[in-house]
Amino acid sequence: MNVNGLVPEGEAEGASVQAQAKLCQRILVVDEDSDIRLLYANALAQPGCRVDAVADGAAGWEALRANNYNLLITEHCLPTLTGVELVRRLRAARMDVPVVMTAVRLPAQELVRDPVLRLAAVLPKPFYISQLVETVKAVLCATDRPRESVQPLPDWRNWPSIATLRLR
Description:
Largest sheet: 5 strands, parallel
Radius of gyration: 15 Å
Number of helices: 6
Helix content: 25-40%
Strand content: 15-25%
Shape: globular
Strand order of the largest sheet: 2-1-3-4-5
CATH superfamily: Response regulator
Structural class: alpha/beta
CATH architecture: 3-Layer(aba) Sandwich
């Protein structure tokens, strides 16, 4: 059952209803490349895990407004709305969704200048799909609690840095 690492190793096939409910995760992937969207969706698809994928920042914003997600994975260079702009809207709407940003060219200066973005992780492209799966697993484990679409924002200075996330 541990094909891509989202289900803990040693988990019995007949897991309890509580354990199954704990594994229910909803992930949104935003990337303009249809092959990448499909690759990510297939790699992250697990029982109890739903992966939605859209092609641009505007569609990503609409999906975020319409649904409750446990994680957003977004490319930075997107048509209509960049990944950073998408995350800014997300934070301005007080949506407390962890974000993994991917990019060939990361907007390092923007990320440093704008701490309100609070990215959970950054993956410079190219990366191995196993790195994505491990990063997603680490972020979801670090934020393993029910999420609502709107929550008060905690003080960003108390958030762990990307470097403190441990991959398991």
